[in-house]
Amino acid sequence: MSNSPAAAEMPSPLIRGPLWVTLQTIFQAIFCFWLGYRAKGYERLEKEQGALILANHQSFLDPLLVGLPFRRPVSFLARENLFDVPVVGWVLRKTHVMPINQDAASTVSLRQTISKLQNGFLVGIFPEGTRTLTGELGEVKPGFAAIIRRAKRPIYPVGIAGAYQALPYGSKFLKPTRVRVVFGEPITVEDLEQYSSRDQDAALCALVQTRIAACCDAAEQWRKTGTPPIERPSSERNPTLSTGVVNGPLP
Questions:
Q1: pLDDT band, very low/low/confident/very high, at 109 (cuts 50, 70, 90)
Q2: CB 13 within 8 Å of CB 73
Q3: Which of 69, 76, 136, 156 is 20 to 30 A from 128, comparing alpha carbons?
């Protein structure tokens, strides 16, 4: 971690804080009861010294669903106008959320995100750029590429299933359904070195799209069958494509 003055002022990436813990406890009770919420694979991130979490975006619930199982905070990006809303803005500032102007993403947001990653935070981004209208994974946009090249931290793909059914686009009420979240194996810093220039943005996006889609498929099968994915031994994983889990018993 950096020893710069900015780093010294930054809160610990491992301490959630009282408001985070309180909200997490409340939402855990609601989501586990109402949505049967379960997550798999998040344990490998608990001690990670900075990582970018890239997940599909099914509903407004997604930041909560991704951060819910952790014993450390996850820092997300949110529209800057939300910070002007009474109470909401205060909560966002107290829970490590970073503002971003979606119409003109600024270098300030970029620098803040990179700084968080380099100082050990888990940072969450939805690379589709907006919520799905159909429940299906949309096209991954390259906005994260500049961040990860400068931060030099791993990417963890995440698949969310059931959030679209629970709170689809335009819905105001939370519907009871089964929600599952699968955290895949990381795309390591070493893996990312082969995508070191902007000319390789399309290839990097294709890789991330494939990895998120695999996690989505695992989460959806878990949601439908009730059978959780099982960790596959590292010797059996494809380092480029594997989520690190399989659905059903190992052969």
A1: confident
A2: yes
A3: 69
- With a CB cutoff of 8 Å and minimum separation 6, the contacts of 179 are 31, 35, 36, 37, 38, 61, 65, 160, 161, 162, 163, 166, 223
Rounded to the nearest 5 percent, the helix, strand and coil shares of the chain are 45, 15, 40
Question: Is residue 113 within 8 Å of residue 147, measured between CB atoms?
Answer: yes
- Element holding 23 (H helix, E strand): helix 18-34
Q: CA–CA distance from 10 to each of 2, 71, 137, 148, 222 (Å)?
A: 11, 18, 34, 20, 38
Tokens read off for 251: 């052969």
Kindly state the tokens that stand for 50.
């900075």
Q: Which fold has domain 12-170+177-236?
A: Glycerol-3-phosphate (1)-acyltransferase (3.40.1130)
Q: What are the distances in angstroms from CA 122 to CA 77, 145, 158, 231?
A: 12, 16, 13, 22
pTM of this structure: 0.88
Spatial separation of the C-alpha atoms in residues 171 and 10, rounded to whole Å: 37
Query: DSSP letter string over 146-201?
Result: HHHHHH---EEEEEEESHHHHS-TT--SPPP---EEEE---B-HHHHGGG-SGGGH
The structure tokens 């996850």 sit at: 74
Can you give the length of the chain in residues? 251
Token pair for 107 = 């270098």
Residue 9 has pLDDT above 80, yes or no: no
Tokens of residue 102, six digits: 């979606």
| Domain range list for the chain | 12-170+177-236
